[in-house]
Amino acid sequence: MNNHIDIKLIALDMDGTLLNNQHEISVANREAIKEAQDKGVFVVLSTGRSFLNSHNHADSLNLSSFLVTVNGSEIWDEKRELVRRSLVKSEQIEWMLKLANEHKATFWAISTERNWHNEMPEDLHSVEWMKFGFNIHDDAVREIVIKELETRGEFELSNSTPFNIEVNASGINKAQGLKLVCERLGIEMKNVMAVGDSRNDLAMIKEAGMGVAMGNAQEIVKETADWVTASNEEDGVAKAIRKWVLDK
Predict the structure, then answer these.
(1) Which helix H or strand E contains 116, and what residues bound it?
(2) What confidence score (pLDDT) does residue 1 get?
């Protein structure tokens, strides 16, 4: 690791990373992102959120680049047109819904049309699904559910907080999404700086040339990263951009 990595693309997680605890983007983060873009560096939001819940933030930052949404289940180009979408089978969603109910877990799901929270459509099979999530505060119960999910061997498991489980189609993660973006832009992953705080950021932090964990990141993310920045309440994204991209 050295200070001379030529960063051509910055991949930013949103919740717990780019956004503060009020779900806002600080002035310092906005300024650093603008300076990076002015220097010709691509800035890509790489989030577990759906397009519906993320594109406004991208627009507010004047990002003229790709979006990686739903942990890599969707890739959108600079015109906000869909490049690729990876679905979870409705039968799998049905099974996970039963699992959530069995363990009295609250849940959410993202379909191509909308986000669902603790309610689901009457006909699960008439909807295209991309992600299912469990919220489980009891560690022992969460471990049981993770084991059940792993046993099926059909899913990519991660989280966006220590208390939840995020389930995507097998092989789908933010790193895979970014690889496709890099291919389109003619960039290599070694020229990417990826910044995040949770397990759904691990793959991109591992595979980027510069993997940065937030000061508020889960321990496993800090252990995996090349560098740890300040927290999302202390403009950690701006500090990482200034150190590794703007050399300030």
Answers:
(1) strand 115-117
(2) 45
